[in-house]
Amino acid sequence: MAKAEPSGFGNISQPLAAKLAKLGLHCDADLILHLPLRYEDETQIVPLAEAPEGLPVQVEVEVFSTDIAYRPRRQLISRVRDDSGMIAVRLLNFYPSQQKQFAPGARLRLYGEVRDGYFGPEMVHPRAKAVLPGASLPEALTPVYPTTAGLSQLMLRKLILTSLARAEEQGDLVDTLPKDLRAAQSLMPFDAAVRMLHLPPAALTPEALEQRNRDAWRRIRFDELLAQQISLRRAYAARRARTSPALPARGSLTARLLKELPFRLTGAQQRTWLEIANDLAQAHPMQRLLQGDVGSGKTIVAALALLQAVENGWQGALMAPTEILAEQHWRKLSSWLAPLGIEVAWLSGSLKKAQKQTMLSALREGRAALAVGTHALIEEAVEFERLGLAVVDEQHRFGVRQRLALRHKGTSPHQLMMSATPIPRTLAMSYYADLDVSVIDEMPPGRKPVLTKLVVEARRDEVVARIRDACAQGRQAYWVCPLIEESETLQLKTAIETFERLGAELPDLNVGLVHGRLKGAEKAAVMAAFVAGEVQVLVATTVIEVGVDVPNASLMVIEHAERFGLSQLHQLRGRVGRGAAESACILLYAQRPGETARARLKIIYENNDGFEIARQDLHLRGPGEFVGARQSGVPLLRYADLEDDALVEAARVAAEALLREQPDAAARHVERWLGGRGELLKV
Ligand code: ADP
Ligand code: MG
Fold first, then answer.
1. DSSP string, 445-464
2. What pTM value is reported for the model?
3. Which of 261, 263, 270, 611 has most ligand 1 atoms within 8 Å of CB, for mutation?
């Protein structure tokens, strides 16, 4: 899993290296593949009188006068001119150094857009550079790169050009694609493509430039898709080469569990279970993601899979991200499986030492067939006699390394991951090199859609009255306190205040409080009281976000809903609508939420389908944010688009041919594009 030995960038300072690392750049090859977002044209100087309105241009001017104005607000206003005319330059925030730069008589090159403003034609915050008369102009377009705070375009550009020159010298730009493949796909040579993009040539007509640019991008996208296809195939082949215990469906235990259940599996549960059962029967490790909206019933499918392992004399483990959720799984599994005589071990951070020792030895000696727990499951001390199947619930909440750690508790166990945060297929493919996906696309019968209401905070009283009514009818309610990202202490304080206030407002009801700072046992006690109906209103921080299942709760209130992310809101809303009663989710929002917050509230209000919400979320946030770099490692695709069917298909065919006929070239190609990152994409 170690990153390939970086070739480094020659001599650069530690802080600079840290900034580059932030951009995912660790060696020359990374810098060379850090491609521009766009270009700026500094090759020409446009006379002021000819500057097109609203398009970025470069002008060269002399400063005529500079003043600080105070109305409507403090700003620097400079009048600048060339032979053709005069415009105003305005800086709304400025440093003394900028004031100096705009001293009368100074000769400046400005890059920006000329617009019609209050003072006539003006540039607001142009980029400014002092020049001597007759200073030469760059010959090529200036690339603009994605960068990070404290790393200037100029600096980054320099580093990239140095890397490019060094690579060229060392012959590292050689093409990884054989000539005939390039010819068949009419692909530009690699070195020409990267040089074209970093250093667009000067003397080309704009049309020719655009064509060359398009060709260069096409080569880059093809290369990237090819690297993905090759690593996908290699990961798949590597998986098929590993052996795992074959765990065929015997039905001895699963059939008994199914007979005992108070419900019948939905068609979608039946289908996904079959897919999993088939995988388990293979002598190669399963690697499957089970996706299903909140409440679609993933747990029973996981339980059946675990039983199939037990039927074959192997152990199973189920890991969940929070103690509440893990404990709930443990209770559910225990109640389902106790009648079958199967012991389920329980592991969490808050176990007493003696209890823990008992659990550990039960697992080590194989007395416990199954283990359920939190991260405690991947601690050093945990050993299984023979782990055959590892299940990770809410897999997106775990890091790659944690998922890997669970897998390493067995020799080569099968792996099932579950998620209610659906990742669109194309996105999943660009983040996971090798993963089969099953989707539960049907809800258990009798679910009523949850009614979602947006209520402004000023009408909080009506919401409290509604809780009173619901509880008078024997129902229960959740009240989720605002997320305060900056401060856990503040979040806790708010939760306690809300708890006290609701207690006073609802004197006839039992109000409970659960938050992240409670000890495991305390948390469990509150949750148990809520499950038993002794507590009617549960005030909670976001610890209840995932998985908690209390069908009698029919009302969910989320305070300051505008602060929550979409998948969080959807998860929270999914806590209700699980029983027979009509359920509602009330989103309390502040008087004036910001624009993105409003967009989120609108999406959650208008949609019940988690996949659709995820799609819109993706649209709102972009793929990087959406999947979360932390959870998923590095994206395989930065430039290419999986919707480009023709290019994807070409890359697929090429990957097969290359692996078959020139495996060395394939390896070099993947190394160039993914370096050591490919490994992390396999889990
Ligand atoms: P999730 O997919 O969100 O993890 P759960 O597995 O917690 O959902 O299931 C939600 C609830 O639905 C549970 O109470 C579970 O027992 C119940 N359930 C699951 N499958 C069915 C079914 N086929 N028919 C009726 N209820 C079901
Ligand atoms: Mg669940």
1. TTPPPPEEEEEEGGGHHHHH
2. 0.71
3. 263
